[in-house]
Amino acid sequence: MDDELPAVQAPKPPPLQRVEITISWRTLAVIGIAGALAWAMVVARDAFLLLFIALFLALVLETPATWLQERWGMRRGNAAIVLVLGTVALLVMLGYLLVSPFVGAIQDLVRDLPGIAERIRESGLFQWLDERTDLGTELQDWAEGLAADAPSKLDDIAAIGTRVFGAGLIGVAIVFMTLFLVIDLPNLSAALRSILYPGTADRVQGLEHRITRTIGRYALGAVVIASIAGIVQGTAAWALGAPFALALGIIAGLLGLIPQVGATIAALILSLVTLTVGWPQAVAMLAVCIAYQQVENYLLQPTIQGRAADISGFFVIASVVVGAALLGVVGALIAVPLTASAQIVLRELTAERRAAVAAARAGPGAGEDAAGPAETA
């Protein structure tokens, strides 16, 4: 008779453990302060936007202010006053010379949009497209609708701009905040480093220098390059007989401030408007835009800006899109230097880990092999 197998007992379940989560008063205070700051930023977002703009402008002017101190021996306050008031005077002069003619040219351009669309449709290329698509009809309807609605909107915008310019409150606030920030930036930086240990303070100082140089060089270089783009392409439009050459040149310069996509949009607008003169002129305008872009990419940007914003094209476009969604035109203009600054901080924070990973991938004998020839030499 077979032996009976012993009964298998089921394992006892582990005893239940009580898990307690303790949140200190300090943690609650930090969460409360963060929530209060977030609420304040939402409620006073316009004020924070002005403060952000002033801080960005101060960082842009930090590099020339330091140069004036070192090169000409100027005191910090005097250098800040010269830069800020000189910038304001330049903007006022440009506004006096260009804003009124530009607004008038834009109004004339908008009113003439139906005629421009009709002349574009009369070209051979668009006649060929009209036979196969509804593009010409849609373009004509869009131009007529915009021409009907835009004059009242332009008048409203001009009236609002006149009131804002007359009051000058926002502009004066930004000017004075920028002025005082340029003066106090070294003191604010020193106060921040005074609460840090020496090694960390040195790293922070290096980051400040690199970020300030990146923002300043990129922003100032972008303004110079956009001015060159507007002058070159506007002059080409005038030489080819395109209507509203002044407006087209200023549009090309303003769009040139937007990286990557701005130049493409400007080339499309200028070529379409020049198409009203004739397709050879339109082809010539497109060739001028493409040729200028090559000169800008391979000569002007490396010379004027250098590698100030060393980020990939994808992140450039992504930062512009996100910046425009968050802060509108201001966000689109400052997105690239801010992204480059964030990249500098991220590289600094991960420098030790990247060095450790590189050493691990190289293998344990890599350091000895590299050190051997150096010691022999």
The description of the largest β-sheet is:
none
Radius of gyration: 30 Å
State the helix count.
Answer: 15
User: In whole angstroms, how far apart are the ends?
Assistant: 87 Å
Q: Can you offer a commentary on this structure?
A:
With 377 residues, the protein is mainly alpha-helical. The chain has a domain at 48-195. Helix content is 83%, strand content 0%. The protein contains 15 helices and no strands. It has helices at 25-43, 45-72, 76-111, 113-121, 124-130, 135-167, 169-194, 198-239, 245-256, 261-274, 279-305, 313-327, 329-349, 351-362, 366-376. Helix 2 (45-72) crosses helix 3 (76-111), helix 10 (261-274) packs antiparallel against helix 11 (279-305) and helix 12 packs across helix 13. The longest helix has 42 residues, at 198-239. The N and C termini lie far apart (87 Å).
Write the layout of secondary structure elements.
Layout: H1 25-43, H2 45-72, H3 76-111, H4 113-121, H5 124-130, H6 135-167, H7 169-194, H8 198-239, H9 245-256, H10 261-274, H11 279-305, H12 313-327, H13 329-349, H14 351-362, H15 366-376
Helix pairs in contact: 2-3, 2-7, 2-8, 3-6, 3-7, 4-6, 7-8, 8-9, 8-11, 8-13, 9-10, 10-11, 12-13
Can you tag this structure with a few keywords?
377 residues; mainly alpha; globular
